[in-house]
Amino acid sequence: MTETEPATKPGIRAFFEKSALVMFGLGFAAGMPNQLAGAALAIWMREAGISLALLALLGLATLTYSLKFLWAPIVDRVALPFLDKKFGRRRSWMIFTQAMVMFGLFVISTMDPATNIVAFAAVATLIAFAGATQDIAIDAWRIEVSPSNETLGVLTATYQWGYRIAILVSGALPLFIAQYYNGDDYKQFGWSMAYVAMAALMIVPIIASLAAPRELAAPAPRWVAPEDIPSRPVFEVLEWVARLGVLALGAAFLAAGLSGKHLPISWLVGGLYGGIEAMATSFEAKPWGVWQQVGSAAIGLFMVYLACRPIPNVRTKPGAYFQSALGEPLADFFKRYENTASLILVFICCYRIADFLLNIASALYLDAGFSKDEIAIAQKGFGVVMSAIGAGLGGWSILRFGLFKSLIVGAFLQPISNVSFALVTIFGSTAFPALNSIGVQPMLWLAIGIDNVSALYAGTCLVVYMSKLTKEGFTATQYALFSSLYSLPGKLISAMSGRVVEGAAIAAHSGWLSFLKPAFAKLPANSFAEPAKKLGIDAQSLAAGYTAFFFYTAALGVFAILLAFLVSRGKPKALVERDD
């Protein structure tokens, strides 16, 4: 179906159909393990007296979400015994991984990290791995159960709603339960009860998976080695070991690059830096450390490529398998989208670049004089509500106007939202005292609201677009690859954010941007004064520096707008619509 057929489009009632309600439950399923194996677990461990170094190491468990494309082919091709025939390929993997998460949460609830950190870390990694694998299956089901772009937009929006609620529940409820039983002292019992409760909540996604309709696509066939490849048992074992070893090294470099942490590869290359501590300092330095991080990711991708390459002039079963698992999905994408494939990949990587550049927003709020409580209420309370509205608007827009028009709107919204942060820099933290007295900071709430609506609107549109680029048989692998790598360019540029703000602030103090200062003459006394003093400038100059930065990020967003127009017409659009 194309965007020129409005009569066939479903209405708002599509948000309340069975598949959409099921998707809400599956979004809840996706958000639960991510938080419970990450932030909530870190608080438990820290309260138990675990060192910050070990906390950082265990935090790498959640990197499985960034590396999931490496084992996504298994979810595409492997049929689980009994479950596959009864529930279908996607639902069987969803139910299996949800049961693994539930089991892991029950097991970890019986442990005390203070006395058995190794086993505790192993189970936490299992929870994260099962959660990431569940994500692969859920994304593939969402794509394969959707008969049109419009339905896919609705499912993506309801997924976002469920996910956001799960983040709130799994982030706050364990802390309330632990506090109720333990008070301010550390006891295993309170945390055990918290994780038992979280394990019990995993029954919600299992019910959603059981209620889910089967996907419309036929499952990919089980991989069978070509008959003309001779059997070489000893050589094949050695080749399997070598390829898996290269793949593991690639995963380690990718993990370091995507997380920005040296730990996954410090054992291997720390000596080149003169020791692990020196490597940590170099890897996290601003801004040059980010080049090392992106370089690590590039090395990791090259190693994954080597692991999948056939041996020149020699056909082997392991080589054929790796080529089929990871090589064919990528080759299929370039074959189907012909000479527009590179343009599409650049668009995916740059579409949300203006949003990724806002990594200093929290620093802005503090520098403007807002308290941590005020920031928390605005971000975690009001911001979450606005995120849900943004996701819903994205789904509705695709439903009403079609995918490509919505992509263009999303491309415009992101730079506009960046400019909205000037409300904070111009008015500071004490605008509208009457509202401040009842706990509302209107400029802060307005900036966060606009940003969250635009980010989730654009994010929903991009998820639907990436989903439409996949092909039956490769759905899980191709989507996992897109979703794992699309943020890398934004990561590279965002590392420069702090320097851009400081450089612009100095230029506003005594340089070519000084004409901006009068716009900030009425700033409250507590806004930007203290951080500006550390830079040796006045508060108005720092506010002007932040403002210049937000206009700079908005200007970069124009590139995404141009790309959105390019992929939304002509051959790039026709090739996507051809597969509908």
Tell me the layout of helices and strands.
Layout: H1 18-36, H2 39-47, H3 52-58, H4 72-77, H5 83-87, H6 89-108, H7 117-144, H8 149-182, H9 188-201, H10 203-211, H11 233-259, H12 263-269, H13 276-283, H14 289-308, H15 317-337, H16 341-350, H17 353-356, H18 361-367, H19 372-401, H20 403-419, H21 422-427, H22 433-436, H23 442-468, H24 475-485, H25 488-494, H26 497-510, H27 529-535, H28 539-567, H29 570-578
Question: Any overview of this molecule?
Answer:
The protein is mainly alpha-helical and 580 residues long. The protein folds into three domains: 1-215, MFS general substrate transporter like domains (Growth Hormone, Chain: A, Up-down Bundle), CATH 1.20.1250; 233-314, no CATH class; 337-580, Growth Hormone, Chain: A. The protein is 72% helix and 0% strand. Helix 8 (149-182) runs antiparallel to helix 9 (188-201), helix 19 (372-401) packs antiparallel against helix 20 (403-419) and helix 27 (529-535) packs across helix 28 (539-567).
Main features:
single chain, Growth Hormone, Chain: A, mainly alpha, 29 helices, globular, 580 residues, 3 domains
The name of the CATH topology of the largest domain is: Growth Hormone, Chain: A
Please indicate the count of domains.
3
Query: Per CATH, which architecture of the largest domain?
Result: Up-down Bundle
Level-1 CATH class name of the largest domain: Mainly Alpha
Beginning-to-end CA distance, first to last residue? 6 Å
Helix content: over 70%
For the residues shown, what is the average pLDDT?
85
> What count of helical segments does DSSP give?
29
* Radius of gyration over C-alpha positions, nearest whole angstrom: 25 Å
Bin the strand percentage: under 5%
The beta-strand count equals 0
Unreliable segments (pLDDT under 50, ≥5 consecutive)? 1-8
Encode the helix/strand succession as letters: HHHHHHHHHHHHHHHHHHHHHHHHHHHHH
